[in-house]
Amino acid sequence: MKNTKVGKDGAATQRENTLKGLTPASTKQAVERAVGVCKKVVSAFSNSWKTKRELTKAQAALGLPQHQLITESPTRWGSQQLMIARFLEQEKAVSQVLLANKKARHLVPSWQDMALLKSLNKALAPLFEFTDALSGEKYVSVSFLKPVLHLFNNDILSRKDGDTELTQAVKEGVLKYLNEKYYDPTTDNLLDMATLADPRFKTAYMKEERVGFIKMRAVADLVGMVGGSTAPESAQRAAASSSPPAAEEDPELTHPTKKKKNLGSYFKKAVQPSTHSPPSRASIELELSMYLQAPVPDSETDPLEWWKQHELNFPISTVEAQAQSKVNSLSPLDTSKHSHSPLSKHSLSSLAKHSLSLLDRSKHRLSPLNSRVKLCMADPDNSA
């Protein structure tokens, strides 16, 4: 009888050769089988208090964390990856308990199954936190898409030493899907405008050849927004605050008391009434240039709060930036609030579709109310 025992290096080589030999069809079947085995093992431990007790003893003996196995939930993002990660963490304790039970020995996963699960977890684990963060309701998140795509392509999902063929295939598949999804010119323009309006990123994650075009588009949007007889709201508020309040007529006060003048009153000039003339294109370009040269805030800064604090420094850009930030957030979209924006008619419809595409209809972290609102905001003519 041949000796089937191999060393650690030989086992690793054998696992690598096995993964390399998998075709796309066989890989899908093997992955489905490995995930199925993981589900059966988790189910066996969830339905037996004796098995849970033995698992606790094995964890204490092996020095593993006292963690229970996680069951996959079809309505929770990332629950399958969490199940696999916890299963891999408790692999030794789980195998020890299963081997001690004659009726459950058939559930012990093979080394092929473990190799596939490890490869899957290595590729998918970094994506869990990003998916959770991009599903936020109460903060601007779409302006993060360009930076996140850049991070995925250059770091998180790039090829690394030690990656198996399956891990590389999963990473390449995810990158291909994301890059093709946001390659559409309309979507690309929208994301670039969102990134430009975010003081944390500005033009840092744009292609160099597109920076000039996005600047020109931003200036054109601002000119269209503040052109005509309507001045920016921030400028109107500043003018209103600087103008003297109208004196209220009171018939009882026919002879008002004369106030004593101080030294400062002799140097006070009369305020001329403001004509609310729209700013010129040159002033808009200058303000945009000053905004792009302003210091970059911390990456965890709320962009809406930043614009609120710098409204006096950038009164024209603040109007557009706040409109962009409200549209770009993943909170429920309200077209009535953004009907004044040059991007409202086309961008809102496009953004609603792309925001919805980030969230599967059966897997999301949003509240039921906001999920229904998002589905109602979809284009009924083009939605499935």
TrEMBL record:
<feature type="compositionally biased region" description="Low complexity">
    <location>
        <begin position="231"/>
        <end position="246"/>
    </location>
</feature>
<feature type="region of interest" description="Disordered">
    <location>
        <begin position="325"/>
        <end position="348"/>
    </location>
</feature>
<feature type="region of interest" description="Disordered">
    <location>
        <begin position="1"/>
        <end position="23"/>
    </location>
</feature>
<dbReference type="InterPro" id="IPR052035">
    <property type="entry name" value="ZnF_BED_domain_contain"/>
</dbReference>
<feature type="compositionally biased region" description="Polar residues">
    <location>
        <begin position="325"/>
        <end position="334"/>
    </location>
</feature>
<protein>
    <recommendedName>
        <fullName>HAT C-terminal dimerisation domain-containing protein</fullName>
    </recommendedName>
</protein>
<feature type="region of interest" description="Disordered">
    <location>
        <begin position="231"/>
        <end position="280"/>
    </location>
</feature>
<dbReference type="InterPro" id="IPR012337">
    <property type="entry name" value="RNaseH-like_sf"/>
</dbReference>
